[in-house]
């Protein structure tokens, strides 16, 4: 059974970064770790045309991991316009430290 996490009104599935088989589908993702209050801490929010192509070799993952990221929260979102809207909404709401755009 997969763990789900709600970010604003969006429900994302929680996956370990390593050992997950990523599929060739588009969506939104959040690199996150658990903070001292035992809550998920979003460190980077992004979107991709293919999880399979983007997540395994993401250039931000090592930096996110150094800040405590352990998991990827992901949600399939097929339409580019929807991904753009959701990504901007999440970044503006959570202000993740590794995002420099859309703040």
3D structure, described in words:
This protein is of the alpha+beta class. It has a single domain (3-94), classed as 3-Layer(aba) Sandwich (GIY-YIG endonuclease), CATH 3.40.1440.10. Helices cover 24% and strands 34% of the residues. The chain has 3 helices and 5 strands; from the N terminus they run ββββααβα. It has helices at residues 51-54, 61-66, 80-94; strands at 3-7, 10-16, 27-34, 40-48, 71-76. It has a 5-stranded antiparallel sheet. The protein is globular, with a radius of gyration of 12 Å. The model has no long low-confidence stretch (mean pLDDT 95).
Write a brief structural summary.
The protein has 103 residues and is an alpha+beta fold.
Biggest sheet statistics = 5 strands, antiparallel
CATH topology: GIY-YIG endonuclease
At the first level of CATH, what is the class?
Answer: Alpha Beta
Task: Kindly name the structural category.
Answer: alpha+beta
Order of adjacent strands in the largest pleated sheet: 1-2-5-3-4
State the order of secondary-structure elements, H for helix, E for strand. Answer: EEEEHHEH
**Named CATH architecture:** 3-Layer(aba) Sandwich
Q: Given the structure, what is the number of helices? A: 3
Low-confidence stretches: none
SSE blueprint and pairings:
Elements: E1 3-7, E2 10-16, E3 27-34, E4 40-48, H1 51-54, H2 61-66, E5 71-76, H3 80-94
Antiparallel strand pairs: 1-2, 2-5, 3-4, 3-5
Characteristics of this structure?
GIY-YIG endonuclease; 103 residues; 3 helices
